[in-house]
Amino acid sequence: MKKSRGRTGRKRRRKHLQGFMDGVNCSHKLEYIKLKKWLKDRGFEDSNLRPAEFWDTGRGLMTTKALQVRDLIISLPEKCLLTTDTVLSSCLGEYIMKWKPPVSPLIALCTFLIAEKHAGEKSLWKPYLDVLPKTYTCPVCLEHDVVSLLPEPLQKKAQEQRTTVHELYMSSRAFFSSLQPLFAENTGTVFNYSALEWAWCTVNTRTIYMKHSQRECFSREPDVYALAPYLDLLNHSPNVQVKAAFNEQTRSYEIWTNSQCKKYEEVFICYGPHDNQRLLLEYGFVAVDNPHSSVYVSSDILLRYFPPLDKQRNAKLSILKDHDFLENLTFGWDGPSWRLLTALKLLSLGADEFTCWRRTLLGDVISDRNEQQTLNITAKICHFLIEETQHVLLQISQLKRNKENLKKHLALVEALCLEDLKILQKSAEILCSLNMAT
Description:
The chain is mostly helical. It has 17 helices and 13 strands.
């Protein structure tokens, strides 16, 4: 009897450990103990969520009980949220109130984060600040060598992001200087560029949507940000559905699940139906097998496969531009998009078919020759992008060997390229089948 009971005990223990294999519970870590106590003091009831480290997503939250559809995942009281109300009720409030022209809600939050981080032990928000990432992987934080490896449309957006943050810093320096009476050190060293970059990334990657009424002391930009300690440890998955909103009755921000989750598994929420380029741009990560992901085709690549001597080339381009068919041309998991095929059909129109361009935009079949040429060119573009992506992956593997300090950032671009490659290879198979069918 003893023997079998021991075996059952081992089995049970093994099963218990199995639950933790995907994620290692981190509740015992001092920073999380302090955060939970800080939240409890502000009215947060301990939920079934535990901080954990997961091998594929990094830091996240695991559930200690199985979750069913329509279960409440988390309810965070208003007192725990960091909003512009928090900023205005701090010592920064009077400075913001009298500053002209008014600062944006975004700058108010960034200023508060920088000031509180600088205050260190004296900050009332220290337990939250201690669990925030020290660094981020949004394109604004990436080295130039890494950004140049990104797909062309994303490179452009990364540059725009960098410009946005730089302009924000330059336009806020006078306001930062006005805060000098609050600091023993020079505000120029407290509110330096890297401090603003960190604060901007914190707000951009971690805030939840919460609408506040317009106030005179802020500029006209919408005041819709709230930082949500503990709740912001929940990671994104494109395959789950949740309902999230501020509950006016309970005065808490609540998230309800529309998906099931097993005991000891990571609990996910969905940030929205974003493709991987958007996820990397806004949040600094890539989702594996993201159903919303696609590979973008630039107009330069499009034109590479059409004879420059085509007399109607410029007219065709004008039509595509006027009807917004030069942007958002993509390959997805189900092959080339309708927009991409339509643009290529129009560019493939023969001189005798050009008058039918309106029908092309409506999706009509113009001729067998036009259909076949469109498929051939689409396949060529797909293969070109496959080769280009493989070339970038080769560059990344070489850089990883030579540049130890860029490994983390390079791994991110590598993940994006590998996902793009999967989509392009799937599209190539679909095009091959279509070609055989015609």
